[in-house]
Amino acid sequence: MAGASVDPRLPSWWLEDALAREGDPAPAAALAGDATADVAIVGGGYTGLWTALALRERSPELRITVLEAEICGHGPSGRNGGFVHGYWASLASVVAVLGEERALELAVAGERIIPGIRAWAESRREDVWLREAGMLEVSAAPAQDAGVEKGVAAAARLGRSDQAVPLTPEEVAQRVSSPVFRNGIFYPECATVHPGLLVRALRRAALDAGVTLHERTPVRGVRAGSPNELATPGGTLRAPEVVLATNAALTGWSPASRNLTNFGSYVVLTEPAPEALVEIGWTGGEAIVDGRMFLHYFRTTNDGRVLMGSGSGPIGLGGRIDDRFSRDVPTAARAEAGLRRLLPGLAGVRVERAWGGPIDVSADHLPFFRTKAGTRIHFGAGYSGHGVGPSWLGGQTLASLALGSDDEWTRLPLAARAVPRLPREPFRRVGGGLVRWAIMACEAAEEEGRRAPLAARAGAALPRLLGMELGTR
Ligand SMILES: Cc1cc2nc3c(=O)[nH]c(=O)nc-3n(C[C@H](O)[C@H](O)[C@H](O)COP(=O)(O)OP(=O)(O)OC[C@H]3O[C@@H](n4cnc5c(N)ncnc54)[C@H](O)[C@@H]3O)c2cc1C
Fold first, then answer.
1. pTM metric for this prediction
2. Minimal CA–CA distance to 128: which of 141, 142, 114, 139?
3. Which residues line ligand 1 (CB under 6 A)?
4. How large is the average pLDDT for residues 373-399?
5. Which superfamily does CATH assign the domain made up of 13-403 to?
């Protein structure tokens, strides 16, 4: 495999672009001295900011404070691919976890996400590049054909064939032409956004709504009590209700750590090339994924760029968020190799930027929202690479938990299911790393039309042999 044209680095192009449009503002003042709030939220990404806005709407008198270690949008909320969807596109695996009835309930709840984001952005006159053009899942190798059939069958079984429409190779080619694309599925329920504009618009909305925000304020210790205490370098924030919305960082925090692990995901972004997009017929704005387990995800932007992502980054150790999530050159190179293989019609288009971030993967690949037993500390994570849309549901749910409500949000399976446990470290890192290597080797071999080595086939079969519903192929 060829190397990457550019080394991965932060900030992402999205965040840089969004900050430049704001005139590169100074961060909000760090917490200096002790303070109090009714609700303290840790983490200024989508989850923390949607929670703050939902709380403000439902309970205007609350004093809400958000503490963010860096600046809002520094985390994956300012780095992601910008695919926004609920659960129709992953229905088959959601059914495997929840059963048909609860899966349907979740998928129907997820249908509220895109209209929710659209209505909010319109009410604020914010242009977050929301483009509601659906998503294609394409098979890019014979071994990926079965995944397409599975996705179509899952929706049909629940009487919702409208949410997973099968496409012949000719129908795929009408939307985007590539010599490696075979059949596919069109999922109408998907939009794309400019992730940086979205997270910064949420920050603006929170500030306009009177939420207190402290950036450059890492929380170093959380002590449960009445009130709870959050220790930061500049002072302590006390609040009776605390929401931890720190995403992958929760992997190192014991109430969540048995259910979560971190994987890296990386993207490359091309220069603007609108004419090349016209040549391959990809002008409809559809988001696209291939049928790999460590999938490629790709989309166009308003200025005619292509973003290609690869979810094949390194696995973390415990909760450590280190360079493996932002500087891993091999994963950026895999994303670029994906761009070249999947879209050879863009061969002359240059890659300008690359970056990565951690993905908080839960044991059943669904997020969970909880209150730590015996406390008023609420938390949510486990988006498993699909958090842009679901963090909207997360904000509603965490707001309900902080308000002590028993309602439509807290009754959703995201808040009301038992999440399976992962093996302890270092077995999680070692076992997960082995299976990851094996699956990647098998998927690469399949795309090249050869048989994977025996060791890779044996490693890839491990999850199935262990009776796991997910991570199997
Ligand atoms: C490369 C990449 C591509 C992705 N693509 C997609 C996609 O296309 N579609 C999709 O649905 N999902 C995608 N995701 C996942 C998605 O970005 C996340 O699920 C989502 O952004 C999670 O939002 P969040 O607010 O929970 O977390 P974050 O955005 O991580 O926000 C958490 C915040 O907490 C702060 N923080 C951490 N620790 C502390 C502390 N101790 N004190 C104070 N603050 C702290 C961090 O600085 C961060 O700003 C992608 C992720 C990556 C990395």
1. 0.95
2. 114
3. 42-48, 67-70, 74-77, 79-83, 218-219, 245-247, 249, 265-267, 297, 309, 356-357, 359, 383, 385-389, 391
4. 98
5. FAD/NAD(P)-binding domain (3.50.50.60)
